[in-house]
Specification:
Structural class: alpha+beta
Strand order of the largest sheet: 1-10-8-7-11-4-3-12-13
Largest sheet: 9 strands, mixed
Strand content: 15-25%
Number of strands: 30
Number of helices: 32
Shape: globular
Oligomer: single chain
């Protein structure tokens, strides 16, 4: 297939060279930093090129993605193109003509311009090493190709100058037409376009082509991030991109300017300013701080038209609406891929600025409502707060905080309205009931079947905050907690048993499309009843630690049941690889999920001044060992800039952890002169590395036989080269205690168990035996042997808290089992 280099050569041989050259005064280090850190996702290259088409006033934009490493990305549009002056502005890095020439509002071609910083073009180098533009304007077609390699060769202070070649408009068809046909793109001459631009990204690595580029995510990115309309249409690989219509019915729609919505927003703003400027009471906040008015503002897609807006003090005009749907919007495969069809879509001049955070920094709202909620809100004056990569906003700007108050008020109104409609519907059903049998709450119906026992169960759950309405006032609702949380939670304040929609069993049922509305309610009430049963035991004096164990067994059973519907191991393996390309919270959460799946206590943190997670592992006879976890998602390779040793160590120290672990898809291994990279040289002995492949091996081996706590500690404190991590995990998994010591410990326990049928043997009792004293075996080693046998064979019951254990078979039988391969252990029948 022809490349951009072939095209440039054709222009050079068939046309002529412009007298002037285009200087690109940007260092290779800047290109690498911008493309690999600001634009970590290679799909951002496509988004930025499409944004340029929009800003050029294009009506049509066509994207053709590379199928292999010998292919290229092409973006063609019919917008206003560039001459030599345009090329000079294009390559004036960090100096955007949109900002300087167009004034504060940045209006051109009848549109408010998305581009602002002048570095978006550098996103192309996150995908390939060469960016070419072919521009048709004023009956001349020009070409310029800018290569990352040529910039790198020149070095700082010696900017390269790139040739520009040109052909007459009609002559260029013979050179470019065949090229467009090969990429299955429209022919501008046949389409009657007098002005057009073709952008090409070439020299692309194989890992960013074909299905690896994940067209489904690219489709979603363009559809949600860029203002598509009848005035701007985009096609991706010959498929027109259009708004995705929800596959559930709309329940209601509200506009920001509605009076009741405005009241909620003003209440939020009033409370915000009281806290922000330390007013004593709400009434002390001046009205000009929070009272909003209905006004008009220019439409960002067509400034000649005006739209009604809400004028918010110190934020300016805001337009938008919210729709509440009958069912959840994000589900099935789309939810599994991390795509979001619900939440807030905050745009500035039509460009989405919160694609990675549909909450826009708000606390998690009830998922039962939020999962059915979609708001599209345009905030032009949030422009000043946008960061360079244009998918995040600065927390330092008051506009960011005020925007949050506005959208929180909008959501609060929708949630209350949905609740009112639910209540009205319930009252209508009760009135229409032929037998006069009212539709009742979960608590009311349960009160009919078990009036005394269920009430006592509620008293056990409420712990002194028994609801005034008794059991009849309690109902079941669905909400979103963490995946690691239990499936049920009782709130005394809400008088509600909440069902965790993020629990693996619920999610797997929902994603398999087996969860009808009726089954969902049945499921919810069944697990709610189990929680009341736990409350009943607590009310009758069963100790909290025993109740916690009971709940844990129930939760483990439910998670195990989820495996019949969704293979959790394969889910985590797929998710950790996909999430590592996205980075951010998604990657952090899946890393946390992996460790929780292998029964390790871990807490997600994720704030900028904290590690991404803190992991804790108990040790026999010693203090728990804690790890700070840094999950570094990127386009693929993490270097010393992505994970600075000083930052990793500081997070570890401030969190009070013993060791730090950095986890990534891939690390930068080689530096100059084939030496170790700066990244490897920086990491000290208190920082270990783990790759996605090593995490995958950890999961697959754990599925066959659980790791002991000591084995996990050994893995997380490794000093291995990243290339050796997978083999190291395998070696640790295959380790078994030394047969001689293991046999001695088992024999001592067996003898003690036969002598005393009442008290179980303990670690301390084994340590006091003369045979162990003679060998000088430390306490942690004895505990590790007992745990290893318990995990590997199931022939020992070991209580880590009391450090007591019980053998179910003679030591000789256990030793035989320990000598077998894991799959052989599973197939051995010991019932005799």
């Amino acid at each position: 297939m022809s490349t951009a280099r072939d095209l440039e050569q054709d222009f050079a041989s068939e046309g002529e060279q412009e007298e002037e050259k285009i200087e690109v005064d940007v260092s290779y280090q800047i290109i690498r930093q911008v493309s690999s850190q600001l634009y970590t996702n290679p799909r951002k290259a496509v988004e930025e090129l499409v944004c340029n088409s929009y800003d050029a006033g294009a009506n049509e934009c066509y994207v053709n993605t590379p199928e292999s490493g010998t292919d290229f990305l092409a973006v063609l549009d019919d917008g206003s193109s560039m001459d030599m002056d345009g090329f000079e502005w294009l390559w004036s890095v960090a100096k955007s003509p949109k900002a300087e020439e167009l004034g504060e509002d940045r209006v051109k071609h009848g549109r408010k311009q998305i581009g602002k910083f002048g570095v978006g073009k550098l996103a192309a180098f996150a995908l390939g090493r060469k960016l070419t533009h072919i521009a048709a304007k004023d009956n001349v077609v020009r070409i310029i190709s800018v290569s990352e390699e040529e910039i790198k060769e020149r070095g700082a202070g010696n900017p390269p100058r790139f040739n520009v070649y040109k052909l007459g408009f009609d002559e260029a068809e013979d050179v470019v037409g065949e090229y467009l046909e090969g990429k299955d793109l429209p022919n501008p001459w046949e389409e009657g376009w007098n002005s057009w631009t073709l952008a090409i990204v070439d020299h692309i690595e194989e890992q960013y082509t074909g299905s690896a580029l994940k067209p489904q995510y690219l489709h979603h990115m363009i559809r949600t991030s860029i203002p598509l309309s009848s005035q701007f249409k985009v096609s991706l690989d010959n498929s027109k991109i259009s708004r995705r219509e929800p596959d559930t019915d709309e329940r209601f729609n509200v506009d920001l300017i509605e009076e009741d919505v405005r009241d909620d927003i003003e209440n939020r703003l009033q409370s915000f300013w009281r806290e922000e400027e330390d007013y004593g009471d709400l009434e002390d906040v001046p009205k000009e701080k929070y009272e909003c008015s209905v006004d008009k503002t220019a439409d960002y897609q067509n400034i000649d038209e005006e739209v009604r807006c809400l004028k918010v003090p110190e934020l300016g005009p805001v337009t938008g609406n919210a729709t509440y749907y009958e069912n959840l919007l994000t589900k099935g495969k789309r939810k599994e891929r991390g795509l979001k069809d619900h939440g807030f879509r905050i745009t500035v001049k039509g460009k989405l600025v919160n694609r990675e955070d549909p909450l826009f920094g708000l606390d998690n709202p009830p998922h039962g409502h939020f999962g059915r909620f979609l708001a599209e809100v345009e905030v032009p004056d949030l422009d000043d707060a946008i960061l360079v990569q244009r998918n995040q906003v600065s927390e330092e700007h008051i506009e960011t905080q005020l925007t949050r108050e506005v959208i929180q008020g909008l959501f609060n109104y929708c949630r209350r309205k949905a609740n009112r409609l639910d209540q009205q519907k319930l009252e209508e059903i009760e009135e229409e009931s032929e037998a006069g049998e009212a539709v009742r709450s979960f608590g009311t119906r349960l009160n009919t079947l078990a009036p005394f026992d269920a009430t006592q169960g509620l008293r056990g759950l409420s712990k002194g905050q028994f609801p005034d309405g008794g059991l009849g006032s309690v109902d079941v609702q669905f909400s979103s907690y963490d995946e690691a949380d239990e499936i049920t939670h009782y709130s005394s304040e809400d008088q509600t048993i909440f069902i965790n929609e993020e629990h693996p069993l619920f999610k797997s049922l929902e994603e398999s499309n087996k969860m009808s509305d009726e089954l969902k309610q049945v499921f919810g009430e069944a697990v709610a009843g189990n929680l009341l049963a736990s409350g009943y035991l607590g009310h009758h004096g069963v100790e909290d630690n025993l109740l916690d164990i009971s709940k844990s067994i129930t939760d483990d059973s439910l998670r195990s049941a989820a495996g019949y519907i969704r293979d959790e191991i394969e889910y985590f393996i797929s998710e950790i690889h996909d999430a590592s390309l996205e980075g951010g919270t998604r990657y952090e959460k899946v890393v946390v999920g992996v460790f929780r799946h292998i029964s390790v206590a871990i807490q997600h943190e994720g704030a900028s001044d904290k590690p991404d997670a803190i992991l804790t592992i108990p040790q026999a006879g010693e203090e728990n060992m804690s790890f700070s976890i840094e999950a570094k998602g990127s386009k693929g390779i993490v270097d010393h800039e992505d994970a600075k040793e000083a930052t990793v160590s500081r997070h570890k120290e401030e969190a009070g952890c013993d060791h730090a672990v950095v986890i990534a898809r891939e690390f930068q291994l080689e530096g100059k002169g084939n030496k170790d990279s700066a990244f490897l040289r920086e990491m000290d002995e208190n920082v270990s590395l783990m790759t996605n492949e090593a995490m995958e091996k950890l999961l697959r081996r754990h599925k066959r036989r659980r790791f002991t706590h000591q084995q996990i500690i050994d893995i997380l404190t490794n000093n291995e080269h990243p290339n050796d991590l997978v083999e190291y995990v395998e070696e640790k998994w295959e380790e078994t205690p030394e047969p001689g010591i293991m046999g001695e410990i088992l024999q001592i326990g067996w003898e003690a168990q036969k002598k005393n049928r009442v008290n179980k043997p303990s670690i301390g009792m084994v340590l006091a035996d003369a045979r162990i004293l003679e060998r000088e075996v430390p306490k942690n080693k004895v505990a590790n042997v007992i745990e290893a046998v318990a995990v590997s064979t199931g022939m020992i019951d070991y209580d880590r808290q009391s450090q007591e254990f019980e053998l179910f078979q003679q030591p000789s039988v256990i030793l035989e089992q320990m000598a077998l391969e894991p799959q052989d252990r599973e197939n051995t029948n010991l019932s005799d």
